[in-house]
Amino acid sequence: MPNLAVANNVLRQILKRHKLWANLQGDIKFEREHCDVGKALTCEEEKKLLAACTSNALLNAVVTLALNTALRKNEIRTLRWSQIDFEKRTVTVGKSKTAAGTGRVIPLNQPAFDALVKWAGRLVESSAEDYAFPACEAAGIERKHPDRERIDPSRPITSWRSAWRAALKRAGLQLRFHDLRHTCITKLAESLASEQTLMAISGHVSRSMIEHYSHIRMDAKRKATDAIVDGGVNQNVNQVQVASSGASAKSLN
Question: Is there a domain that residue 65 lies in?
């Protein structure tokens, strides 16, 4: 996909060439290119956030799920129990932002699996087609004893914005919920997962989108460069040893 600023400039030049720009420029507003590609949490920030979410069962479940599956907020919000296979430990994404994202199957690692099992234990009367995170206005669903009459499993939860903001304040962090997806994709990239695996989990369809979302963090970069140094030192030592052995053999002859 071409750079948005370049595409805008090309269109402007075409209009100018045909002497149309002067009459249209007041009515045309080009879409701005978004420079904010999000952020990936550091390990310390992730620990602070999870600690701040422990007091809220709902938030703890959705944050843990986002950090370990790269699911988008709306994919989590509209998740039904029928999409979760506890036996195979997978979640099948429903309608997604992209065609490539819809229907993708994501394995649940231990933190994500444990979070869903714990959350399911709070909603024992749910059926397969119920929403995993149901509408619960003023129900106190995050509490140990919520008002179950106010919980409507036939509709998905509208938002967890208030709880999210409160958790961020407790953790002393400034970030978006979408940054949890960035964080998960970053960790996958740092684990040396293949490009195909990254796209299969995240639901992206191009390398440019993967690059947009994955941010190799400084710790990973430092380990990579340190590994090069260590390998170089060992290689040099081996070369010196070989050269020394060769010199000794010559002297004996």
Answer: yes
* Residue of 54, 185, 60, 203 lying closest to 133 (CA atoms): 60
Bridge partners of 91, per DSSP, are 84, 106
The candidate with the shortest Cα–Cα distance to 67, out of 162, 187, 173, is: 187
- Residue with token string 């149309």: 20
Q: Could you report the per-residue pLDDT of 7-40, keeping only the tens digit for each?
A: 566 776 777 777 766 666 556 655 444 445 678 8
Residue positions counted in the chain: 253
Separation CA 5–CA 157 (nearest Å): 38
Evaluate whether 151 touches 136 at the Cβ level (below 8 Å): yes
Q: What domain count does the chain have? A: 2
Give the range of the structural domain holding residue 25, as residue numbers without chain letter: 1-35
Residue 195, domain member (yes or no):
yes
User: Domain for residue 180, yes or no?
Assistant: yes
